[in-house]
Write a sequence for this structure.
């Protein structure tokens, strides 16, 4: 039996199959959710022109469930993203798995933050309003451009971009597909951080939800495009012979 080779790639067929279908699902579901969210712009803050809600946001019950529909698939996207990152980690070259392992950790934190954020909106805000329990709603609701919802989305998508950055080295091949994945994952992180710096310098603490919208757009667009490319990547890997650690 030969010892493990550091340059050898662990390519478990189950990870490739799961990665292929998960990548396709991530691209399709993210695109649909992106469109749904775009069709329900926030009726508060700097982007609102008429019919805007203002503090203390006690009259937002009429917007349920329309303005919240996109959050249910957004929760599923967070789970799918985490599964996809795990599949990439399993398929990464051994010498690059330290980076893909970090991606799994950052993706886990990102998913946890975003899932909690959206789940609170779906299961806390509306029942509280219907029961006249408005204390604390202003701080939690998505309609508050200075509230916890926006802050959690910002950190959640920043962490997603960090996970993207950590995934980039996992694609060590010299072919065009892996090169494109490296550049796209790295670019998502760079654009997210540049957006944070630019918006913060321009607006300071009054950035409202401007950075949040930019961060979502960058990261979801990256997930859509790389989801398509990853489906091709895993499809190709599925056609290769399976190699064990010691083979």
């Amino acid at each position: 039996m030969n010892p493990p080779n550091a340059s050898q790639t662990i390519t478990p067929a189950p990870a490739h199959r799961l990665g292929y279908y998960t990548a396709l699902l991530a691209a399709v579901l993210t695109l649909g959710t992106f469109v749904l969210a775009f069709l329900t712009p926030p009726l508060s803050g700097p982007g609102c022109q008429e019919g805007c809600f203002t503090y203390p946001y006690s009259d937002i019950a009429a917007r349920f469930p329309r303005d919240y529909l996109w959050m249910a698939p957004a929760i599923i996207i967070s789970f799918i993203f985490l599964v996809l990152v795990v599949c990439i980690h399993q398929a990464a070259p051994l010498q690059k798995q330290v980076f893909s392992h970090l991606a799994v950790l950052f993706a886990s934190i990102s998913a946890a933050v975003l899932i909690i954020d959206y789940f609170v909106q779906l299961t806390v805000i509306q029942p509280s309003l219907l029961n006249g329990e408005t204390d604390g709603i202003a701080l939690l609701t998505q309609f508050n451009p200075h509230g916890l919802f926006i802050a959690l989305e910002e950190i959640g998508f920043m962490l997603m971009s960090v996970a993207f950055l950590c995934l980039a080295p996992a694609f060590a091949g010299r072919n065009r597909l892996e090169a494109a994945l490296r550049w796209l994952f790295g670019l998502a992180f760079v654009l997210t951080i540049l957006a944070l710096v630019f918006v913060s310098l321009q607006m300071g603490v009054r950035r409202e939800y401007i950075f949040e919208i930019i961060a979502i757009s960058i990261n979801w667009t990256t997930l859509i495009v790389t989801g398509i490319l990853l489906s091709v990547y895993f499809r190709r890997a599925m056609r290769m012979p399976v190699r064990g650690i010691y083979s």
Notes: The chain has one domain: 13-238. Residues 6-11, 243-247 have pLDDT under 50 and may be disordered. The CA atoms of residues 1 and 246 lie 7 Å apart. The longest helix spans residues 97-130.
